[in-house]
């Protein structure tokens, strides 16, 4: 798990993503994470700068989003979705789409897998690794570059609505629920750095 360091100006640089459709807004809430989970996962408040760009021949690259918004209490909420095959709680992610940038590819996954529209950061929040289990139960090691995605609407109908569930959680509850330990550590490490989630501009349909 790596967290990328960026200046406030860079963090505010976003790429607009607009899908015009019927919207349904909700405002779920959740409790904050505790220090016990941080200790168990080996997470501190210190953010790691830089990122190792080298990738082994056996490690495949994916791009995903950490969908977020502010709850009614002003706290950050994270949207998780379930995987299609095993029902594990994860975030939207996938392969690079031909003709699109990594951020645009991640935004496309957010629309297809989670049915969300909004605004994506042009610079990643960080990266994590996990093992993708195939239908034959074989494991494939993947490295995911994760972009912040400010959710402005949740769709009533979206491509994978019958294959996944979605749930809004606090940062701490999201870390406890996520079924990928490296991603859970990344989410917890981001918790003290609220600026990593915020941006000045909004995009609408």
Distance between the termini: 34 Å
User: Which percent band covers the strand fraction?
Assistant: 25-35%
Class based on secondary structure composition and strand pairing: alpha+beta
Largest sheet: 10 strands, mixed
Low-confidence stretches: 5-14, 16-34, 40-55, 200-205
Mean pLDDT: 76
Proportion of residues in helical segments: 10-25%
How many helix segments?
Answer: 5
H/E element sequence: EHEEHEEEEHEEEHH
What is the C-alpha radius of gyration, as a whole number of Å?
16 Å
Total beta strands: 10
3D shape: globular
Summarize this structure briefly.
With 205 residues, the protein is α+β, with helices and mostly antiparallel strands.
Describe the fold and architecture.
This protein has 205 residues and is α+β, with helices and mostly antiparallel strands. It contains 5 helices and 10 strands, in the order E-H-E-E-H-E-E-E-E-H-E-E-E-H-H. The protein has helices spanning 8-11, 35-41, 102-114, 171-177, 181-190, and strands at residues 2-3, 14-17, 23-24, 60-70, 76-82, 89-90, 93-94, 116-133, 139-155, 166-170. Strands 1, 2, 3, 4, 5, 6, 7, 8, 9 and 10 form a 10-stranded mixed beta sheet that branches. The longest helix has 13 residues, at 102-114. Residues 5-14, 16-34, 40-55 and 200-205 have low confidence and may be disordered.
């Amino acid at each position: 798990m790596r967290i990328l360091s960026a200046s406030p100006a860079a963090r505010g640089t976003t790429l607009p993503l607009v899908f015009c459709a019927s919207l349904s807004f909700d405002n779920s809430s959740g409790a904050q994470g505790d220090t016990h989970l941080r200790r168990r996962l080996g997470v501190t408040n210190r953010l790691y700068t830089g990122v190792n760009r080298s990738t082994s021949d056996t490690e495949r690259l994916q791009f995903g989003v950490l969908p977020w918004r502010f709850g009614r209490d002003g706290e950050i909420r994270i949207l998780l979705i379930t995987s299609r095959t095993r029902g594990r709680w994860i975030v939207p992610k996938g392969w690079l789409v031909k003709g699109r940038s990594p951020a645009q590819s991640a935004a496309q996954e957010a629309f297809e897998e989670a049915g969300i529209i909004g605004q994506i950061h042009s610079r990643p929040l960080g990266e994590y690794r996990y093992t993708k289990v195939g239908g034959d139960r074989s494991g494939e090691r993947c490295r995911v570059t994760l972009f912040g995605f400010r959710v402005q609407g949740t769709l009533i109908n979206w491509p994978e609505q019958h294959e996944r569930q979605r749930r809004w959680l606090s940062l701490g509850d999201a870390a406890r629920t996520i079924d990928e330990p490296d991603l859970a550590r990344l989410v917890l490490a981001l918790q003290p750095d609220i600026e990593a989630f915020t941006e000045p501009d909004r995009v609408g349909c």
